[in-house]
C-alpha cells in the first residue's frame, strides 16, 4: 500500500519535518482486529499505571512511527533502492489497547526444529504478558501445531518459567507435521484463546498465515503473531533470526577440533558438517569467524570434485602446502551429487520437507576413494565431525537472550494494540511489525555475488568452481 507521507502520518503541513525528502512511502499494512471485528472495546495501556515505567512523551509508539527497510542510499543515484521506499510499523507499546487483561487468554506454541532461545522467548512472553499487561491466563500448547487439538494446554506463570532461559530446546516440546487447520482453529475457539503466539520457522509461518486467514474468516477476536525461529537464519526481511549467533559460536568448537585433528595427522583433512538445509549462513559465518577453514561449501553454490578447478585438486595443493586442510560443508550442499535410491528420492519428514542424505559421510568416503586411487602409498586421514544437534540444542548466549526478550515484548505490545497476522522482528536494528504473509514468502539465502561470500573466498582461497 503506497501512501503519501501526509496520508501516512496525518500531519498537517506545518507539522511536517522540513528535512523529510521522501515524497511517499510504501508502508506495509498490518491487519488489525478493528478491520473485521465490529466495535471492539479499547482500553488504556496498563503501563500508564506501572510504577516502573512512568510513560513520558514519546514513550508510546504511534501509527506514524515507521522503520525503513532500506537505509543505505547512494546519493549519486547509481544504486536505486525501491521507490517508494518500503516501510514497516515500528514495534512497541501503544497508548490504546484492544484487550482487557482480565479476559485475555494467550496461547504459546513452538513448532519445527530446535533453536537456541526458544525457551527464552516463551519465558519472556509469559513474564511480559503478566508483568507489563497484567494478563493471568497464559497457556502453553504442547508438541507443536498438533498439540492444539491433541493435548491439554498447560497453564504458565512467571514462577514456572523463571529459569527456562537457561535451558536449551523448548520446554513446551515441538514437532513437525500435524497441521490440521480446522482442528487447530476449532481448538483455539474451544479453549477461548484470544491471543496466539506462534514460534517457528518458514513452514510454521506458512501455517500461521492459514490460521490467521481462517480466524479472520470466522471473524474471531483473536490476535495471531508469528515469532520467527530458525537456526539456519533463512527467514527473510528481518536482520537475523534468534539463536543464530549462538549456533555460529558453537560451530567454532567443531571447526577448532577438526583443525587440531587435521594438523596432527599426516595429510589430515578435518571435515565439519553444519546445519543449513537450503542456506549456508551458519557455514559462512562460522568460516569467517574461525579463519581455520580452507574450503566452505554451501547449498547456494554448486561444486565439483574431480578435474581442473575441482575440490580434489584444491585439497591436494593445500595438503602439499600446509600438510592439512579443514573443510566445512552445509548439510544442504551437494545434495544432488549424492546417489539416491528411488525410495530416498521420495523420503519426506512429517512436515513434507525432503529428507537429506548425509553430505559429510558421503564426502568422507569420496575423499578416501580419491586419495587411495591417486596416492595409494601415502598416509591420509579424514576426521569427520558432525555437530549438527550440538549447535542448536544449547541455551541462547547473552546476545541472543536479550534479542529473544525484546522480540517477545515487542510481539506482546503489537498484539495488545490489536494488530494481528504479523511477525515481529528487527529491521536495521529496530523492531518492526511485518505482515505474516510477507515473511512466510520471503527467503533469505546467501547472496554469492555480495562481499560476504567474496570474503569467504578470499579467506579460504577456495576455487570458485567455474563461477567467475
Ligand atoms: N505450507 C504449510 N501450511 C501449513 N502448515 C505448514 C506448512 N508448512 C509447514 N507447516 C507446518 O508447520 C510446522 C513446522 O514446519 P517445518 O517442520 O517445516 O519447520 P519450520 O517451521 O520450517 O522450522 P525449521 O525448518 O526451522 O525447523 C509443522 O507442523 C508443519 O506441518
Ligand atoms: O532433524 P530435525 O529435527 O528434523 O531437524 C533438522 C533440520 O532442522 C534445521 O535446523 C532447521 O531448523 C535444518 O537445518 C535441518 O535440516
Ligand atoms: Mg523450515
For this entry, give a set of tags.
binds magnesium ion, 468 residues, Rossmann fold, four-stranded parallel beta sheet, 34% helix, binds adenosine-5'-triphosphate, binds 6-O-phosphono-beta-D-fructofuranose, disordered N terminus, alpha/beta, single chain
Task: Summarize the structure in words.
This protein has 468 residues and is of the alpha/beta class. It is 34% helix and 17% strand. The chain is built from 15 helices and 17 strands. Strands 1, 2, 4, 5, 7, 8, 9, 10, 11, 16 and 17 form an eleven-stranded mixed beta sheet that branches. A four-stranded parallel beta sheet has the order 13-14-12-15, with helices on both faces. It has a two-stranded antiparallel ribbon with strand order 3-6. Residues 1-21 have low confidence and may be disordered. Bound molecules: adenosine-5'-triphosphate, 6-O-phosphono-beta-D-fructofuranose and magnesium ion.
